[in-house]
């Protein structure tokens, strides 16, 4: 949905982050395992059932530039155009659509290597999103490719085989407008800022940080994007169980935009702040499903108590984002 329309008002809802393990070089094992974990997340016992399930970045293929071509699938989705899952060429899209329909739950289907339907030489790192009826409602192609070089620690160059996406993407559910990105996109605050100013109350990125940058920045970036934008921020990682190759950091997380109303209560002790504070939920590093309840009161108290959203001085600084519109 275009961001020029009014966003749905934020309602209470529950997110499930599936910190998927066992991502192997065998896609025929990866897909059934992902499906099984989606069903497991959906059938939560002893807590509110999730309204939205999220998978991690690159869950049907090992994460590495040499793998993307081999694992890439053609999706062929165009925003605003009818999309027929039955005739889709993507086995991953079929599986995800079926799982969303079977569970009746919104699904952010992590990301997969995608081959452009019209220009087969172009590959993208692409997230697909499904309604509870199993419709493919939007896609997000990772905009900022993970090209880094920290000598002796990590060198990664997604641009060797991938092309960066060129559109901002968000989607509406009955409970929130949700802004999308993928992993490295989080380091570019403009993306989350434009999403928030386009009405997103929640920002969710499938991701796969690593053992160098994860301990450095994973939680800080969640908190930064959440506080700057006064929005809920979440990234879902794979588990750290790869025997060789890329070691994901794990620690899938949901962070709230700061509970002003309960701030004094929280400041009682560092321990209670960590337990009840702004990190609503956080996984360890192995495979697990973690849940977070999104409370609109938190969002509203943050925005009314610290009203930066109405205090901006566009007369003093140029607003680089104000004209932004969500397009596909
Ligand atoms: N998959 C990615 O984009 C990794 C990003 C990352 O680790 C970072 O530090 O940024």
UniProtKB/TrEMBL annotation:
Pfam families xref list: CN_hydrolase (PF00795)
Tree of life domain: Eukaryota
Gene3D superfamilies (alphabetical): Carbon-nitrogen hydrolase (3.60.110.10)
Presence of keyword Hydrolase: yes
Keywords, alphabetical: Hydrolase
Protein name: Carbon-nitrogen hydrolase
Domain CN hydrolase: 13-296
GO molecular function ontology, one term from the record: omega-amidase activity
GO BP field: asparagine metabolic process; glutamine metabolic process; oxaloacetate metabolic process
PROSITE patterns, per the entry: CN_HYDROLASE, UPF0012
Gene Ontology cellular component annotations, sorted alphabetically: mitochondrion
Family annotation (SUPFAM superfamilies): Carbon-nitrogen hydrolase
């Amino acid at each position: 949905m275009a961001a020029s329309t009014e966003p749905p008002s934020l309602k209470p809802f529950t997110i499930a982050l599936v910190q998927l393990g066992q991502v192997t070089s065998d896609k025929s094992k990866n897909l059934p395992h992902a499906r099984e974990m989606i069903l497991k997340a959906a059938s939560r016992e002893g807590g509110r059932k999730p309204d939205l399930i999220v998978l991690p970045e690159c869950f049907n293929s090992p994460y590495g530039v040499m793998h993307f071509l081999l694992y890439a699938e053609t999706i062929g989705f165009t925003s605003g155009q009818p999309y027929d899952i039955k005739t889709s060429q993507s086995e991953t899209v079929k599986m995800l659509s079926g799982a969303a329909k079977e569970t009746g739950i919104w699904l952010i289907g992590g990301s997969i290597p995608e081959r452009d339907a019209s220009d087969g030489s172009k590959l993208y790192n692409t997230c697909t999103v499904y309604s509870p009826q199993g419709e493919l409602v939007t896609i997000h192609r990772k905009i900022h490719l993970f090209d880094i070089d920290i000598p002796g620690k990590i060198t990664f160059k997604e641009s060797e085989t991938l092309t960066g996406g060129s559109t901002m993407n968000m989607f509406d559910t009955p409970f929130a407008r949700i802004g999308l990105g993928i992993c490295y996109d989080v380091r570019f605050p403009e993306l989350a800022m434009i999403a928030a100013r386009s009405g997103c109350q929640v920002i969710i990125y499938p991701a796969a940080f690593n053992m160098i940058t994860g301990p450095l920045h994973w939680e800080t970036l969640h908190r930064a994007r959440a506080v700057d934008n006064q929005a809920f921020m979440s990234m879902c990682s794979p588990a750290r169980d790869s025997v060789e190759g890329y070691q994901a950091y794990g620690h899938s997380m949901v962070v709230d935009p700061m509970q002003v109303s309960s701030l004094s209560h929280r400041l009682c002790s560092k321990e209670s702040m960590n337990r009840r504070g702004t990190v609503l939920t956080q996984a360890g590093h192995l495979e697990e499903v973690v849940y977070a309840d999104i409370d609109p009161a938190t969002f509203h108290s943050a925005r009314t108590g610290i009203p930066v959203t109405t205090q901006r001085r566009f007369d003093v600084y140029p607003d680089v984002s104000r004209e932004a519109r969500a397009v596909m």
